[in-house]
Each structure stands twice: as structure tokens, then as C-alpha cells.
């Protein structure tokens, strides 16, 4: 996490806290979801990306090597965190929403020459591996020699399908669908309670030393869609893709502004200083939402995450602040 979090009121600059609904110690299910596949021996599940289309896996894995943020997130959501022996792909500030013991497990780089050897030392009986779109088939083959290796699509636009695929690999296919239903139910409840369709929600990201409109293909943007949030004309999205402004709502004013602004920060050691510089910029200070104290700083690890735990955390941030005021500086 950010050591000295930036305030949710940019005028204060040095601030005391991020807007953060997640409680990492409580984010995982307290007990493992029971395995759902009866019988003895292995079972066969689908695998995406390079390598075989179908993989034989344990019916109830006991030592999981979760190589991807989505794989870790789903294990947490299913209460399997104590079965995970190693990870990869977690963002720098993953402890903003995942419990520290899970974040601090051994990590390995699947693309490294030593990946298979490192994996073998962890003695997994199942490896679940993210495919960001350019996964080397040789990596799948090498890890497959260590333990059954299931590949899932790590494109955040497909996070729901990935959740079900990973849960299936973990032997809990029905529970994977229930995790998605929980997110849908929470999104509906958030929309009903906060009526975000009545609020123009601007979603920004600190890139370099300036604030820019956040990419539409992020979990945060998808969750704003899920609650039916109104967006400024220049930030309209559908299914994670940008849309042009409606003819009846042409661009007017600064494209960064809205009735409320969420600003995504974090991700590297210099994030706080860059955010301070971005918030001090005259253009940013002139935004109406800044003067109205309707701006909230949120964790990049969460809003650019992948999986049901991160999705619930984003929805908590939205519900907790979309109709509120930032602390007075």
C-alpha cells in the first residue's frame, strides 16, 4: 500500500487516507468452499490459450500455484487462500484489498528460465496460469511437467468468464457462478442505494505527473457500467470500450470534470509524488468537482484488479463516496 496515502481532498496535498472500502483481513471467505465434484481420481477441465484445450486436474487440489492476479483473487473469494503456495502477477499494492499472508507468499516469474524449477520447489498439485495474450507455449509445457497447468484468459474484459474457469479448475464450478451473482447483486444494491445514473462520474488516472481519463478497459470502469453510472460526454463506455459523445450531449467544459471524480493512484514507489504534482496543476485545481470537494482518490491495485474480490471492493468505494464529500482540508 502507499506508505503515506494521498488525501481524498487534493487541496491538502499531504493527506491522511485514500478512499478505501476494502478490509484486506476480511476480503477472503473465512472457510473453504467445499469441493463440488464427487468421485475419485482426476477430472478434466477446459484450458485457454497455448497448450492443451483440456487438462486433467485433481478433484480437490491441496497445493495451488496461482500465477495471475485473477487466480489469486478467485482463490481468496472461495476461501482457498491457505491452499495457495505461491503467486505471480499481483500488483505492487495488492495488500490494499488482499490479506497480507496471501500477498507475501513466494512469487515466481512464469517467463523466467528458472520458472519450472522454482515451481517444483513449491510442490503444487495444480498450477493456474494467466494468459495476458502473448503467453509462450514453452512456458505452459515447462510448468505442465511440474503439475497439471490450466491456462485462463487474463484480459480484464473477460474477468467474469475467467472467474468461472478458475473456480472450475479449483473444483468449485458452481461456486464460481455464485461469486459472479454476488457481484451482480451488490452492483444492483449499490445502484438502488446511490442512484449513480443521476451523477456524472469522472474516472481519472494519474499517469506521469498529470491526471488523464482512465482507460475504459479496467475493472473500475466496468463496475461504473455495472451500477449504471452516468459518465461525462467524453468518457462514455460500453462493455469496456469507449463511445463517442451523444449528439444531444456534446463535449462541454473540461473532459476531466464531473459531478464527482474518482482518481486512480498507486502502482510504484513514485506514485504519491506524481499524484501531488498532478493535483497541484492549475487545470486540475480548476475542475468543478475539486472546488466542490467531490473528488476521491482510490487504489490502482483495486480499480485495475481482476476478480470478484477486487470487484466487490470497487463497488464498496463507489457506494461509499459517490454521493459524499471528501474530508475538508
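Q: What amino acid sequence fits the structure above?
A:
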Amino acid at each position: 500500500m502507499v506508505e503515506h496515502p494521498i488525501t481524498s481532498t487534493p487541496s491538502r496535498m499531504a493527506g491522511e487516507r485514500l478512499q478505501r472500502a476494502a478490509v484486506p483481513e476480511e476480503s477472503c471467505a473465512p472457510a473453504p468452499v467445499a469441493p463440488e465434484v464427487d468421485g475419485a481420481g482426476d477430472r478434466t477441465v477446459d484450458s485457454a490459450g497455448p497448450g492443451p484445450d483440456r487438462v486433467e486436474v485433481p478433484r480437490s487440489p491441496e497445493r495451488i500455484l496461482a500465477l495471475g492476479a485473477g487466480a489469486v483473487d478467485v482463490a481468496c473469494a472461495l476461501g482457498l487462500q491457505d491452499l495457495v503456495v505461491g503467486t505471480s502477477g499481483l500488483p505492487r499494492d495488492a495488500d490494499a484489498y488482499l490479506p497480507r499472508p496471501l500477498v507475501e507468499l513466494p512469487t515466481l516469474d512464469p517467463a523466467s528460465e528458472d520458472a519450472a524449477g522454482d515451481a517444483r520447489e513449491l510442490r503444487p498439485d495444480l498450477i493456474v496460469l494467466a494468459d495476458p495474450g502473448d503467453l509462450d507455449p514453452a512456458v505452459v509445457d515447462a510448468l505442465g511437467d511440474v503439475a497439471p497447468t490450466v491456462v485462463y484468459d487474463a484480459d480484464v474484459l473477460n474477468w467474469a468468464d475467467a472467474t468461472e474457469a478458475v473456480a472450475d479448475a479449483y473444483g468449485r464450478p458452481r461456486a464460481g457462478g455464485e461469486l459472479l451473482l454476488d457481484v451482480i447483486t451488490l452492483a444492483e444494491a449499490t445502484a438502488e442505494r446511490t442512484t449513480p445514473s443521476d451523477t456524472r462520474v469522472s474516472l481519472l488516472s494519474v499517469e506521469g505527473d498529470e491526471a488523464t481519463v482512465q482507460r475504459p478497459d479496467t475493472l473500475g470502469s466496468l463496475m461504473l457500467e455495472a451500477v449504471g453510472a452516468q459518465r461525462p460526454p467524453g468518457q462514455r463506455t460500453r462493455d469496456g470500450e469507449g463511445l463517442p459523445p451523444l449528439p444531444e450531449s456534446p463535449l462541454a467544459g473540461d473532459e476531466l470534470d464531473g459531478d464527482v471524480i474518482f482518481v486512480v493512484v498507486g502502482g510504484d514507489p513514485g506514485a504519491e509524488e506524481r499524484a501531488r504534482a498532478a493535483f497541484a496543476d492549475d487545470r486540475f485545481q480548476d475542475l468543478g468537482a475539486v472546488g466542490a470537494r467531490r473528488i476521491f482518490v482510490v487504489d490502482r491495485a483495486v480499480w485495475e484488479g481482476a476478480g470478484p474480490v477486487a470487484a466487490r471492493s470497487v463497488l464498496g468505494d463507489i457506494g461509499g463516496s459517490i454521493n459524499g464529500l471528501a474530508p475538508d482540508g
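Q: And what stands out in the fold?
A: Residues 10-24+194-321 form a domain with the Rossmann fold fold (CATH 3.40.50.1980).
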